């Protein structure tokens, strides 16, 4: 981290959608507001009411990368994304707080009418579509089920409907999208929430600015726990 970078505002990396929306009350608890909504603004760098903090809006899967390499001092990402990122970059990020926001669950789902239990019991080799390859591989390995993993980045629900896969591993919140696409949840792998992640060099060099924000997030997040 160069000396010049110490004079810049702290940068918080966020993704659009639920994480952004549910982060706003946490910032408000620290006395900070954001005047623009990334859903309606074309800007990718957003100013805040604090001259010492700016936001950058990136894809959810890219938040850990921006924080790891110091383009952002800290960020908020789902445990699902962090687990996949850690496969290639173990220990690269400091994760002080589970913020308990953007809660959902990582699940196995199949098309309605598919006998998943029989397929698993008979030792069939399943084709599973997912972008959470590490989590899916480890889940089925624990069950002793052989799977061929197909990596997709979107429209996961389509895969079983067109015969690309027997099952999907994806995030589920209400289950409405599954139902609308004639799919059903058959297994929950793990509960997911979003976590605060911090660049280790930033914490060391810019801790006087970062630590009060980390503390404010910890107080504001219901049940937030340090790790």
Automatic annotation (TrEMBL):
Its EC number is 2.4.2.17. CDD domains: PBP2_HisGs (cd13595). GO terms for biological process: L-histidine biosynthetic process. One of its GO terms (molecular function) is ATP phosphoribosyltransferase activity. Keywords: Amino-acid biosynthesis, ATP-binding, Cytoplasm, Glycosyltransferase, Histidine biosynthesis, Nucleotide-binding, Transferase. GO terms for cellular component: cytoplasm. Residues 59-216 form the ATP phosphoribosyltransferase catalytic domain. It is an enzyme of class 2 (transferase). The keyword Glycosyltransferase applies. Pathway: Amino-acid biosynthesis; L-histidine biosynthesis; L-histidine from 5-phospho-alpha-D-ribose 1-diphosphate: step 1/9. Coiled coil: none annotated. It is found in: Cytoplasm. The keyword Ubl conjugation does not apply. It catalyses: 1-(5-phospho-beta-D-ribosyl)-ATP + diphosphate = 5-phospho-alpha-D-ribose 1-diphosphate + ATP. InterPro entries: ATP_PRibTrfase_cat, ATP_PRibTrfase_CS, ATP_PRibTrfase_HisG, ATP_PRibTrfase_HisG_short. It holds the Pfam family HisG. Its main location: cytoplasm. Catalyzes the condensation of ATP and 5-phosphoribose 1-diphosphate to form N'-(5'-phosphoribosyl)-ATP (PR-ATP). Has a crucial role in the pathway because the rate of histidine biosynthesis seems to be controlled primarily by regulation of HisG enzymatic activity. Belongs to the ATP phosphoribosyltransferase family. Short subfamily. Lacks the C-terminal regulatory region which is replaced by HisZ. Heteromultimer composed of HisG and HisZ subunits. This is ATP phosphoribosyltransferase. It comes from Allopusillimonas soli.
């Amino acid at each position: 981290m160069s000396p010049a970078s110490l004079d810049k505002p702290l940068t918080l990396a966020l993704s659009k959608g639920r994480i952004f929306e549910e982060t706003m009350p946490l910032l408000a608890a620290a006395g900070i507001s954001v005047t623009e909504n990334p859903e309606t603004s074309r800007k990718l760098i957003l100013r805040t009411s604090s001259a010492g903090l700016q936001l950058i809006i990136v894809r959810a899967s890219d938040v850990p990368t921006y924080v790891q390499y110091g383009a952002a001092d800290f960020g908020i990402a789902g445990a699902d994304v962090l687990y996949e990122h850690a496969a290639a970059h173990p220990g690269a990020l400091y994760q002080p707080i589970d913020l308990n926001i953007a809660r959902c669950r990582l699940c196995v789902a199949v098309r309605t009418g598919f006998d998943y239990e029989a397929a698993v019991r008979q030792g069939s080799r399943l084709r599973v579509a997912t972008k959470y390859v590490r989590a899916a591989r480890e889940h089925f390995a624990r069950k002793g089920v052989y799977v061929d993993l197909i990596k997709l980045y979107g429209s996961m629900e389509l895969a079983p409907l067109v015969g690309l896969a027997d099952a999907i591993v994806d995030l589920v919140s209400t289950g409405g999208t599954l139902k609308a696409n004639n799919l059903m949840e058959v297994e929950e792998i793990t509960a997911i929430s979003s976590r605060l992640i911090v660049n280790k060099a930033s914490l060391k060099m810019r801790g006087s600015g970062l630590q009060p924000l980390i503390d404010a997030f910890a107080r504001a997040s219901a049940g937030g726990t340090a790790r």
